[in-house]
Specification:
CATH architecture: 3-Layer(aba) Sandwich
GO molecular function, one term: ATP binding
Number of strands: 8
Strand content: 15-25%
Protein name: CO dehydrogenase maturation factor
Pfam families: CbiA
Domain CobQ/CobB/MinD/ParA nucleotide binding: 6-233
InterPro entries: CobQ/CobB/MinD/ParA_Nub-bd_dom, CooC, P-loop_NTPase, ParA/MinD_ATPase
CATH class: Alpha Beta
Length: 265
């Protein structure tokens, strides 16, 4: 299965940890994996265990002025100018990604929001790229998104096998998840699933289950001082905590079983 996954959640919930370990799990099985960092606070490279020297000189695609101008016909920041609305993007993943331990990483950058020139060449390029990745690439694509899902449009959303929202025990996190679920529904994304992170006790699980229907729960990731330590050491959680690999693998298995069941029903 060529899975196409978008991962979102309130900042600090651990969505990048899930994205990184999930990519590692797939790659470790020999699957082709493309991880896309679409969060303005780009940390996916660290969660994947990329050596810093491989990524420190990379510029997010949305900020690569020469590329934006080449593909759209106008310079970034040009508002009101005529530009190409369907730029060529099929060659971008292989030209601009870096690869480590079987995972290709593409740092996309973020979509500009309303009031900051949302209909601009940078946004057109990013949305065209994401549409290509989700609809045409034959591989596992994991997109680490910000708390919103501005990168996804109606045409793109149809390519997402699942939108995974990472939550932690707490009302603010679950309120953000509810907002994301509504946005996803407006775009026609029907499979919105939840992963509970930073679980310290059975009561943490019980709290999340009291707020989210069990059919939408993919699984839980335990609170781990080792994951915190991996962040301090700029290493992948998968390199320091075998338990997180086990838990994320179980989450992946449940996800694929759900999708298979839907396809065969």
């Amino acid at each position: 299965m060529s899975m196409k996954l978008a991962i979102s959640g309130k900042g600090g919930t651990g969505k990048t940890t899930l994205a990184g370990v999930l990519a590692w799990v797939y790659a470790n099985e020999g699957r082709k994996v493309l991880a896309v960092d679409a969060d303005p606070d780009a940390n996916l490279a660290s969660a994947l265990g990329f050596p810093r020297q491989m990524t420190e000189s990379l510029t997010p695609l949305a900020e690569t002025k020469e590329l934006v101008e080449e593909r759209t016909g106008v310079k970034p920041g040009s508002i009101g100018s005529l530009f190409v609305l369907n730029p060529r993007v099929d060659d971008i993943p292989d030209k601009y990604c870096v690869e480590h331990r079987g995972v290709k990483l593409l740092i996309a950058g973020t979509i500009k929001g309303g009031g900051t020139g949302c209909f601009c060449p940078e946004n057109v390029l990013l949305k065209s790229l994401l549409r290509h990745l989700l609809l045409e690439r034959d591989e596992v694509v994991i997109v680490d998104m910000e708390a919103g899902i501005e990168h996804l449009g109606r045409g793109t959303a149809s390519g997402v096998d699942a939108l995974i929202v990472v939550v932690e025990p707490g009302h603010r996190s679950l309120q953000t998840a509810a907002s994301i679920r509504k946005l996803a529904g407006d775009l026609g994304i029907n499979r919105v699933l939840v992963v509970g992170n930073k679980i310290r006790s059975p009561s943490d699980r019980k709290f999340i289950l009291s707020q989210v229907p069990q059919r939408e729960i993919l699984g839980f990731i335990s609170y781990s001082p080792l994951i915190l330590q991996s962040d301090l050491e700029d290493r992948s959680p998968a390199d320091v905590d075998p338990n997180v690999i086990k838990e994320v693998a179980e989450i992946r298995d449940r996800l694929e079983n759900m999708i298979r069941g839907h396809q065969t029903s």
